[in-house]
Amino acid sequence: MVEDSTAGSANIVGRRPNSMASHPRIRQYVVELCDAHAYCTQSVTIQQKSSEYGDSQSDRKTQDAVPSSGQSFKVPAMSWRQNIVLFSVLLLLSLNFIVFNVHWSNRPAVKRHKDMDSSQEMLRVVHLDLKGAPPRIHLFKTLFPLIAAAGANAVLLEYEDMFPFEGILKNASAKNAYSREEILWMLDYAHQSGLEVIPLVQTFGHLEFILKLPEFRHFRELSAFPQEICPSNPDSFQLLVRELIQQVMSIHQTAKWLHIGCDEVFHLAVCERCTRRHLESRLLFTEHVARVAQFVRAEFPGIIPLMWDDMLRQWSPMDLADSGLGELVEPVVWVYSEDIAHLLPHYVWYMYGHVFPHVWVASAYKGAYGETAVAPDLQRHSKNNLAWLKILQATKGVQFRGIVLTGWTRYDHFAVLCELLPVSVPSLLLNLLLVSHPHQPKSQVIHLWTRALACPPTLIPDESLQSDPFQWHLRACAFPGSNLFSAVASYVVLQAQVDTLYTDVTQRQGWLTMYNVRHNFSSPWRLLEALSKGQQLVRELTAFRNSTALIMGQYFDQFTVDEWLEQKVDPLTERMASLQHFVHVLVARDTWPRRPIM
Ligand SMILES: [Zn+2]
To answer: Which CATH number does 110-476 carry?
Structure first.
């Protein structure tokens, strides 16, 4: 998942003609919903006017005539035709209002709010994204007690292709997937540490790990993009989604929640089969999610489906209420930036609070600020988590069930690796401690953090995390993963040295530019000087590669070790090798032509 940049522009009225908004009671509700959002109130007025004139396409035309206060406006004199249209619209509005009132007053979400146990402890959930890079099982044996001590009481396991699928799904498993026994051990470690385990199964988008395979390509929404299934193909649910859920749930028999994903369904209602149905994409989305959630609830009684909220965020409150999803799923509202209010205005909370009996939120501890990042930016992640704390404390009318600290390993199935789990232990523990001790001063949380990381007593981190957002001095501590954290700190230094040398000799200095290379014309003495620095770096890179392979092998299988080294270290070596090659070609010459050089 990538950071959402569109939610801030959400229009609560949406594309649906908002006929009910003209009734005083509904209008009061909608205006209340838009509290503190002037543009929203204005939009309601525009939609109201458009609706009254039976012209849903007239936003731009009527915008100039709408009073900026969003209150009333004079209805101009109308012909008898307009009067008939107005009468018909008002009749429709009245009918809609009656339906809406019955619907709204009977919503189970409202009733359940009254029955809720307000003393129920918030769940602090650590997301473990296992896709294509499975940590060795023993890491969880040491990690789970550590995160439990830092305040975690649940983990969200996203297996993707690391689950040992069977039968028709056999090929959906990576060749280095966990065995069933290994997963049972992992679940046992979690249980021993007092952690709930919530499995995550993607059921709509982000199914690349399956849809990439030839035998599953006919389930795709678009033939060219192996991301989403087609919700109008009955086999998508019957043969694929049901099977996925059943196989994963067969090993999670004590789970209380199942996360069904459903985020970033970028291509929706675009295939021929979907377009033939002439349904809005929102309704197609709802139909599929409801079908999945109903299946989960019927097949596994007591289990509550969770889903990412991004596809719902821009719906109108009426659409969300009408969807019925409030009775079927609990949304997990994710934002990884520091400015959460920008992406989630007040009215979104009002809407979610009225529709859903429980709402979850999601911050990030890794994998949110760069697809190729090697270590988490602790300053940004802590700001994101602290911003969520403020939202949790200040938002009224929403029953929050838990916060998920997400930690992405790849941005999707096809992407390269981003921050590895052992390297992210400092970020994970810091953010867990921050959300677990909301009323403690940050200095005390930092103290708890350095103790949890087994740091030497002399180590005093910068409380603001400003001096070094990556906190590389933590390499002196003894947390699980600290040796890999230290190796990655060395990598960052090596990467900077390679970048500097390459830029210096190819751009700043005058003997190894592309001009020199193209015309085979340079000073051997100057080139050999650059070559000697490059050779030293190549030796350091080789030594780093060998030692890091051994360290990474303590946490990951050889496939993941090789992948990381190929993605991160080899490009540096290749850059140095290309310099060496150019130098060798250029110095092979011992006589040069007269200028001008052709
Ligand atoms: Zn389709």
So the answer is: 3.20.20.80
What are the structure tokens assigned to 299, written together? 């097949």
Nearest-angstrom CA–CA distance, 75 and 89:
15
Q: Give the pLDDT confidence score for residue 58 in this predicted structure.
A: 33
Contact 363, 431 (CB under 8 A): yes
| 529 carries an active-site annotation | no
Confirm if 444 and 437 have CB atoms less than 8 A apart.
yes
Query: Hey, CA dihedral for 548, 551, 556, 558, is it positive or negative?
Result: positive
Going from the Cα of 270 to the center of ligand 1, the distance in angstroms, rounded, reads 6
Instruction: Look at the block and give the residue holding tokens 């520091």.
Output: 338
User: How many A from CA of 56 to the centre of ligand 1?
Assistant: 27
The CA 221 to ligand 1 mean position distance, Å, reads 5
CA of 228 to the centre of ligand 1 (A): 9
Cβ count within 10 A of residue 54: 15
- pLDDT, position 270: 95
Q: Which of 264, 327, 566, 574 is catalytic?
A: 264
Spatial distance between the Cα atoms of 505 and 278, rounded to a whole number of angstroms: 60
Ligand 1 (single-atom ion) residues, CB below 5 Å:
221, 230, 232, 271, 273-274
Strand-strand pairing, 220-222 and 123-129? unpaired
Q: How far is the CA of 239 from the centre of ligand 1 (A)?
A: 16
Closest CA to 242 of 308, 291, 287, 206: 291
pLDDT for 461 equals 81
CA of 262 to the centre of ligand 1 (A): 15
Asked whether 481 and 555 are in contact (CB, 8 A), the reply is yes
The ranges assigned to domains in the chain are 7-106, 110-476, 482-587
| Residue ranges of the chain whose pLDDT lies below 50 | 2-78, 89, 93-119
| Alpha-carbon span 7 to 331, nearest angstrom | 15
Look-up of token digits 């109903």: 294
